[in-house]
Specification:
Elements (H helix, E strand, L loop, with lengths): L6 E5 L1 H5 L12 E2 L2 E2 H4 L9 H15 L6 H12 L2 E5 L5 H4 L6 E2 L2 E8 L5 E3 L21 E5 L9 H9 L6 E5 L8 H7 L3 E6 L20 E4 L6 H13 L7
Parallel strand pairs: 1-4, 1-9, 4-5, 9-10, 10-11
Antiparallel strand pairs: 2-3, 6-7, 6-8
The structure holds zinc ion.
The site of zinc ion has 8 residues, from loops.
EC number: 2.3.1.286
Keywords: Metal-binding, NAD, Transferase, Zinc
Pfam families: SIR2
Length: 252
């Protein structure tokens, strides 16, 4: 059996930034005078239930106002042309709305709720969740329902399949990293160890004074594109299409 090249795309906030989704990292990191840590922290969220749900209700409402950008559409298009796996840290559904399927959302999904009492997960779409009224449809819990989004200090069960997918990349495969500096998932360190072809697209290189181990560095990649994601669609498509079509001669 000939090896079928595998294209894996790992994306972060920079992918959706061009659609107008706020990231809340950097700058002052505040939301309505709450620290982001207060509304996204697994250890304290039940004390701050009301603000947590108000924050995520606002995020869900904001999502209804934005559209996929050309890079979301390119990634969805790759799935029709290549054996492609899309892994994202983004909790929005812009890849799906661009036509992508089976996206591995390692930090959860904004439109889903999860009940910590019984483990149920369900989709509420763009709607607000009223934490004083609404309940888990399976067990009736009211206070233990949280957005199905991975908070600070919360385990991320999808890191395991993510690591397996990335770890299986061989020298004929391709890794595309878009819109993440590697501060949360250390994709720079991961990429460095992989034998595949690798391309990075970020707005700009990580400033030396902000660098911590795990982050992305140009030398970990064969190609780097430092521009907004939506502005490098043609160039990135050309690089990836060339790599996916190239015959390495291995196996002869
Ligand atoms: Zn429940």
């Amino acid at each position: 059996m000939p090896h079928q090249r595998h294209l894996v795309v790992f994306s972060g906030a920079g992918l959706s930034a061009d659609s107008g989704i706020a990231t809340f990292r950097g700058a002052d990191g505040l939301w309505e005078n709450h620290s982001i840590d207060e509304v996204c922290n697994y250890d304290t969220w039940e004390r701050n239930r009301e603000s947590v749900h108000r924050f995520y209700n606002a995020r869900r409402a904001a999502l209804a106002e934005v559209q996929p950008n050309p890079m979301h559409r390119l990634l969805a298009n790759w799935q029709t042309r290549f054996r492609t796996t899309l892994i994202t840290q983004n909790i929005d559904d812009l890849l799906e709305r661009a036509g992508a399927r089976d996206v591995l959302h390692v930090h959860g999904v904004l439109s889903e709720m999860r009940c910590l009492a019984c483990g149920s997960v369900w989709d509420i779409g763009p709607k607000a969740w009223d934490p004083s009224e609404e309940r888990c449809p399976t067990c009736g819990s009211r206070d233990r329902v949280k957005p199905n989004v991975v908070f600070f200090n919360e385990p991320a069960p999808l890191y395991k399949p993510m690591s397996e997918i990335l770890g299986a990349l061989g020298r004929d495969d391709v890794l595309v990293v878009i819109g993440t500096d590697g501060a949360v998932v250390p994709i720079g360190q991961i990429a460095e160890r992989l034998p595949c072809r690798k391309v990075l697209n970020n707005l700009e290189p990580v400033a030396p004074e902000n660098f911590v181990p795990g982050m992305v560095m140009p030398r970990q990649f064969d190609r780097t594109l430092f521009k907004p994601a939506a502005k490098v669609v043609g160039e990135l498509d050309e690089i990836v299409t060339g790599w996916m079509a190239a015959w390495s001669g291995s196996g002869l």
